[in-house]
Specification:
It contains five helices and seven strands; from the N terminus they run αβαββββαβαβα. The protein is an alpha/beta fold. The two termini are 21 Å apart.
Length: 155
């Protein structure tokens, strides 16, 4: 249960997401997840040196190039790349390091945790948002929130 509380807290409190490895190709998981989060009121900051713009947002070559504060660093890169990304996330003052499904690296986790960041690993931000805030209805499954814990209506 504490894991669910942490995920809810992260997604409620932090609204600016730098997506490292965001692709401009609509069929890629990174694009789909970012577009979903953008449609739910999150500010998406693409981080990919290959593109000038993605999802109508300026694309940055690195986290260090972003000229404003970022809350969550969401990583769509191979696990071996994540320790350096964790160091960059710490350097820019991010609050959360989120490693996507299949992205597991204990060194990156340690770097971020040692600096006080919340770390979410091997989870999809889109899936967790849909699961915890009722977005599963988009796919014909309108079960609301999936949890054994009684839900308190939003205020």
């Amino acid at each position: 249960m504490s894991e669910i509380r942490v995920l809810k807290q992260v997604l409620k409190q932090h609204r600016t997401i730098a997506v490292v490895g965001l692709s401009a190709d609509w069929f890629r998981p990174s694009y789909f997840a970012a577009k979903y989060m953008q449609a739910h009121g999150y500010r998406i900051v693409p981080v990919n040196p290959k593109y000038p713009q993605i999802l109508d947002e300026t694309c940055y070559a690195s986290l260090a190039d972003i000229p404003f504060d970022v809350d969550i660093v969401d990583v769509f890169r191979k696990p071996a790349d994540t320790p350096a990304i964790a160091q960059e996330a710490v350097a820019i003052g991010a609050k959360v390091l989120w490693l996507q499904l299949g992205v597991v690296n204990t060194d990156a986790q340690r770097i971020a945790k040692d600096a006080g960041l919340t770390v979410v690993m091997d989870r999809c931000v889109k899936i967790e948002h849909a699961r915890l805030f009722g977005g599963l209805g988009w796919f014909g499954v309108n079960t609301g929130v999936i949890s054994a814990q009684r839900q308190i209506p939003p205020t």
